[in-house]
Amino acid sequence: MNRLRTRVSDLDRQRRHRSTARAVFRLRPEPESWLDIGTGEAHFPDTARELFPYTAFDGVDPDPRVLWARAVERLEEAYVGTLTDPRVAMPLRARYDVVTLLRAPDSREELHAALTLLRPAGLLLLEIPHPRSEALRAELEAHGCLILATTRLVLDRFATNAHRLIARGPSARP
Fold first, then answer.
1. Rounded CA separation 82/40 (Å)
2. Do residues 36 and 44 touch, judged by C-beta distance below 8 A?
3. pLDDT above 50 for 173
4. CB of 172 within 8 A of CB of 165?
5. Is the Cβ–Cβ distance between 142 and 167 less than 8 Å?
6. Cβ of 75: how many Cβ atoms within 10 Å?
7. What is the pLDDT of residues 2-26, one digit of tens each?
8. How far, in Å, CA of 164 to CA of 156, rounded?
9. pLDDT mean over 83-109
10. Is the distance from CB of 168 to CB of 122 less than 8 angstroms?
11. How would you list the strands of the sheet with 161-168, edge to edge?
12. pTM of the full predicted structure?
């Protein structure tokens, strides 16, 4: 029973990741570079590559397993650390067309750091718990971001309701 539950959970994760990638595809069909924050073993970039075969996927995670993801070619570049660490964030400034954070940001500093990584007209995609969605939307708008899409979704059979929020970075605002 446990193996079946694990397999169903893996299939749900892949389905959710495909859905997330399709949401970006509708807005930006061919990004050059993409950063996945909190990527772990890079399951999301591995799935998104099906829709974006020519996109360079990078990942950042405090866990060294992100280095394994680069070794098995799920990522082009892997960074061990957090975005609030200037040694990680500074070299990545204004480098990405898309930045994904498939969880709520740990802090305002992390959200601000994620926004600084976007190129002009870049997209920030967040998947956040329902109770935090309105506050985070207001914070993004206060940073000068344009909210392009928001979707309420059920992540999988074993998780809770969440919102997917896609925002265009502050430098693209008219």
1. 12
2. yes
3. no
4. no
5. no
6. 28
7. 555 555 466 677 888 898 999 999 9
8. 14
9. 93
10. yes
11. 77-80, 56-61, 33-37, 96-101, 118-129, 161-168, 146-154
12. 0.88
Alpha helices in the chain (DSSP H): 2-27, 43-48, 65-71, 86-89, 108-116, 133-142
Which residue, 79, 18, 78, 77, is CA-closest to 52?
18
Contact 84, 110 (CB under 8 A): yes
Tell me, what DSSP letter sits at residue 159?
S
User: Both tokens of residue 45?
Assistant: 């970039």
Beta bridge partners of 77: 58
The C-alpha atoms of residue 112 and residue 124 are separated, in whole angstroms, by 11
> Under 8 Å CB-to-CB from 26, ≥6 apart: which residues?
none
Query: pLDDT tens digits for 111-151?
Result: 999 999 999 999 999 988 777 778 888 999 999 999 998 87
Nearest 5 degrees, angle CA 74-CA 22-CA 114? 65
Residue pointed to by tokens 């060294």: 64
